[in-house]
Design brief:
The structure is a homodimer. Chain A folds into two domains: about 110 residues, 2-Layer Sandwich (60s Ribosomal Protein L30, Chain: A), CATH 3.30.1330; about 170 residues, PurM-like C-terminal domain (Phosphoribosyl-aminoimidazole Synthetase, Chain A, domain 2). The first copy, chain A, has nine helices and 14 strands. By secondary structure, chain A is α+β, with helices and mostly antiparallel strands. Chains A and B meet through helix 2, strand 1, strand 2, strand 5 and helix 4 of A and helix 2, strand 1, strand 2, strand 5 and helix 4 of B.
Chain lengths: ~375, ~375
């Protein structure tokens, strides 16, 4: 509740101007805390705040002055390398379309790809709860191996720790990847490089991963119709960068969904982003599940699609290059970058109205990846 | 109990030869299981078996045909890179001499150093239990930052996941490092390169890390006298490799202690290793604590010392180079590599007898790193 809502302020009589619906903010849930909340792991506003208030003050920004990216880029003796790490805590461990092992490989390969890097090597670290079935560990390790082989990268090192019963939930997997930045592909894509006039491309339908995991976890029964989209995207990125260097931003909209990814870009670039709801591909079963559960598909995690912000004159070429790959065969143009309303993402809805697409404050779907 | 011990076998009358005490094995505890045991994370025999039976069949060995090393070595366009990962689950998170943050940085820097590589970049991934104090997270992240700065390496990327209360125990940290193999330092040190006649060097006293953590965890009261030895060892390694390329093996004896590290080397190289108990530096308080608790200091984890197996003609030079560094000022010669009893580590005790130094089967001190 805001101060204004609590009562009239005596002495202030001039009629207030009509509020701009796009500038309004709703009262937000309380987010200040001395303890870590589930929402701090959401990929949304609380995550960003934890990063800004606890992590970055200690460790410094990954790129001084720059926004956090999915992967860091280093130059070692003139060689452009990328490095990224992710812990996976998905529950349940097995879901339609994959398991925690496939997710760990694809998530890391994709984070490298988002800075234009092809994977060179992966590491996998397990934290296992005592009593975990060896058979499940074998199955998940097999998934890691198959996913790595399919992506053309080797798992070169790893670690295994075991904690007592009740000190972890089954298995957590942390994967780290190093990659080689594609030489000659122009500047490394980055969240701060979106410019007014740029075009927003999406490689395929959204919402499948989050809904698939949620469905099997909560026993909702959608799992026959929806499988996770988890897949490696580096070949799609190579095809894009091979066609045009005018790819300004690449993001895989995982935790926090397409909404969080685009909000981060709008903030980092100081631009507005305008989407067309009619152009965003949401599979029927995902839409039905979201309606039933009160979720916004724009907030649901994906593990096999990417959003690209590209120069307008290269957009058609890049869309054609994306559509020529299996991962990008459903690629579409979903919106554009504007100068107005910097830091804001808006959506032109099916009925012609406009609404703000906000970043989630906390956690909509915990442990989805 | 063996079959022979259960009763006399009628019809077998020839007197058995006296058993060779160094060839004898005690009945081992049952280790076959369908579920993960705490001991699978010990760094001992069960860990090795999990690696050999579950992980390697799926992922393949890190170096085809070779033993597992602390870090993988890759060649990228002629550049020698190393990569290593470790999850840290130490309990408690804070202990005399350090915390989980310092440990994560030093453990990773040291694993790189053991293949002769200097750290280029680190990543840090947190899995946090809901309700964890933000103040503790700030303190640990500060430790990560200070340890990284002191080691001269940057934390370039990271990840934060949060799981519900009861789904993790406070905080787990996974750190991954990439390093540059020192150019011109000769062949990369490796566990299979020990040769009969080689000399075994140890950089300093053993047992402090494990006993420091155990003491504060169990409230044993040794913590006033014993602090963890956690420290980075890459500068010590650079000093050694700068003096002589004849460093055949380097290991930091963490989980499983000096005993496990040397057993791994003896097995991988197909040699015997003979130690002199009188030469192995065990601080008084560590010795007292081990006697009280029934622990063998050779099995207790270290985080700030290394064991080196070096060519005999270079041993004195290398010892001098080690002693000229702060990390190696207590370096000593503790034994030698022999052709007899391949795969076995033996100890000449203070009273002149010989005993086998075995690798632990399971877990002596869980969650020590």
């Amino acid at each position: 509740m805001t101060a204004r809502a609590r009562g009239a302020r005596p002495g202030v009589r001039a009629p207030a101007p009509l509020p701009d619906p796009l500038a309004a903010t709703c009262p937000a849930p309380r987010t200040e805390t001395e303890h870590v909340l589930l929402g701090h792991g959401s990929g949304g506003q609380l995550s960003a705040r934890l990063l800004a208030e606890v992590i970055v003050p200690a460790l410094g920004p990954a790129r001084p002055g720059g926004p956090p990216e999915d992967a860091a880029v280093l130059s070692v003796e003139g060689l452009g390398l990328a490095m990224t790490t992710d812990s996976f805590v998905v529950s349940p461990l097995f879901f339609p379309g994959g398991d925690i092992g496939t997710l760990a490989v694809h998530g890391t390969v994709n984070d490298l790809a988002m800075v234009g890097a092809m994977p060179l090597a992966l590491s996998i670290a397990y934290v296992i709860e005592e009593g975990f079935a060896i058979g499940d560990l074998r199955r998940i390790t097999g998934s890691v191996a198959r996913a790595a082989q399919a992506a053309g990268v080797a798992v070169v090192t790893g670690d295994t720790k075991v904690v007592g019963r009740g000190s972890a939930d089954g298995l957590f997997v942390t994967s780290t990847g190093i990659g080689r930045v594609l030489p000659g592909a122009g500047a490394v894509p980055g969240a701060s490089r979106a410019r007014p006039g740029d075009v927003v491309l999406l490689s395929g339908p959204i919402g499948q991963h989050g809904i698939a995991v949620l469905s099997v976890r909560e026993g909702l029964g959608f799992e026959a119709d929806i499988a996770s989209d988890t897949r490696p995207l580096h070949r799609l990125v190579a095809a894009m960068l091979g066609r045009s260097p005018e790819v300004h931003v690449l993001r895989d909209p995982t935790r926090g969904g397409l909404a969080s990814a685009l909000n981060e870009i709008a903030l980092a670039s100081g631009v507005g982003i305008e989407l067309e709801e009619a152009r965003i591909p949401v599979p029927g079963p995902v839409e039905a599940a979201c309606e039933l559960l009160g979720l916004d598909p724009l907030h649901v995690a994906n593990e096999g699609c990417l959003v690209a912000i590209v120069a307008p004159h290269a957009a058609d070429d890049l869309l054609a290059a994306m559509r020529a790959t299996p991962e990008g065969c459903g690629a579409v143009r979903i919106g554009e970058v504007i100068a107005a309303r910097p830091g804001r993402v808006t959506l032109r809805t099916l009925v012609g109205s406009q609404r703000i697409v906000d970043m989630l404050v906390g956690e909509q779907l915990p442990r989805i990846c």
